[in-house]
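Objective 1.3, modelling of assemblies. Example input:
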Amino acid sequence: MFRNELVDARALPRIPLESFSSLPPAYLKKRVVVAAILAGAEMLVVGVLWLVPALRIEVPLDVRLRVTSALVLAGGWGAIVAFRGYARMSYLVREHDITFRRGWLVRSQVTVPKSRIQHAEVQRGPLDRKMGLSALKLYTAGSSGSNLSIPGLPAETADALRDALIASADGN
Amino acid sequence: MATDFSDWRRQHSLGVAVMLLQDGFRMLRNFVPAAIGLIYLRDVGIYAAYGTAVLAVGILAWSTLRFLRFRFRIDGHALQVEEGVLQRNRLTIPFDRIQAVQYQQSPSQRLLGVTGLAIDTAGSAGNELEFKALSWEMANDLRDALAGKAAEIPDWTPIVRLHWKDLIRHAITRNPVRNGMLLLVFPLSYFPNWTELLSDGIASTPNWAFPLLGVAATLLLIPFLVFLILLGLIGAALVVLNRYWGLHLQQNLSGQIHLQSGLIKRTAFTIQRPKIQTVTWRQNAIALRLGISEVQWTQARSGNDINGDERRFFIPSVRPEQVAVLDRLLFPTWQPDLPADLRPAPIYRAVVWGYWLLAATAVAWNSGWSWWGLSLAAFIAALGWYWSGRLSDGRFSRRNDTVFATYRGWRRRVRTLTQFHQVQLVEIRQPVWMVPFKVVHVRLQTAGEAVALQFLPEQEARAFADFVLHQVEASHEPWM
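Predicted structure (tokens):
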């Protein structure tokens, strides 16, 4: 039967903004490595561009300059995002829900109640395996835009979290 | 229950005919280009005839096989279906995964006196399932059996029934003036040089004819406009009447909701209340004047289409007293006179006004900062100030401990209701420029649509998010 108890809004538990845990430094390292690989690829393109005259194919100077500056800017931007994006990433697990904060230019804080988690997934790419990291993905019943994914957790933490979240979803 | 579903059953034997017609139509549609090509080739007529005959026999055999291979039964609390000719599938759909049962009667099915039945499932339960041909009785029995309430199916009570006059009223809200103007623009686009044609016409008209033409134009102008509006209205009315003819919403005691409508293609479906995620009432300026609103509800996405959109259903043209009835049906604890809270911060009005100021600046710029350009810009800015104020006033929310409603808009009003315990995820979002203003957006994602509150003061928004999370955990009602 339907119940409707009184709720005292002031006594509700708040999300404690000061007790979030940030992601391990290994994840920052991974972000830097990924950004460096991308920047390296871009620099490779730049290198080829400036060596083209040696291959006797004409590329106008202004095109070369524009492409070079664009690629250098993109590499720099990637490096900035790698650091700034990492800085705000943090997560918090409470008894009934899990919260993840992220974002540099657009900040976002997503909370998923444990009882609404449909399934949880742990993903490990080759770099993740090398650095002992895992990405935890949580799926709810909502349509696109209703999933929570936490990249770069320590592998044991991700596994433990997945098991704990699924257990509490079952126990409900 | 009249029909026993515990043994394997096939569909109504006319299902062969329905499948034949549907496969035939599909085949025809795909072969039309080839057929047109054949007409231009000589001396192939006889081969074309052979080919057609072979195809026809093939389709007949195919649809017969498909019909014979399609069997279904109810095993405990699950529907089992076997289907497929070359690749054989066996589906098991537990009753509690069924989102909605929908009747679909296309003209071919109506001709044969049978009905199609589509079963929506959510999440990864399996494919969406479609019966091609069931008799009405068997469809009803199956629906009742799937609801698991076969023994004590209570009577249906009518909740909302739309008259054709309601539908015409809805067609009027589709803005016949604009539609008429569009109808005028289309023929004009066939004569891209109509300005030249017009000036040529004027040049070749003798002087004495101008007064006559003037009188004739004035006399004809009003009937012409009326004609345009009528044309727009008829166009909208045909669509609306066809889709929503005889719309009928019923409810039974076990909390099921049944909706049926349609003129050429009749659809009807039955849904459990908890499967409805959000309900939205919409009114544009015309509907506001006529006092009617359009209701839309969403349920969770259907089938195994992970990234698919949620499903939506519409009831057009709902009168105020029917709105109250629907409110009571869908949200029993809802009181429309709750105090308004969670209004956007003043920065929201500034942002809206900012767009108007941009437009005003563009106007002044284009006029070369002339006095009339500047005064027009000032007028636009003033209008924008007023408009943004009304929009800002129109944006608020109402809530009790279970139901949450957002209101927005001024000339075009939208009200969305959802229940806290149907929320799947809460997001607080803040583009970096909003940080110094201490303003954030909040998004509550349900299994259907998301409900968004924009430009809330940060403190209030965080307290609200805490409240929502508390209410989600506090409830043990089914949310899907």
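Residues 209-244 of chain B form the longest helix (36 residues).
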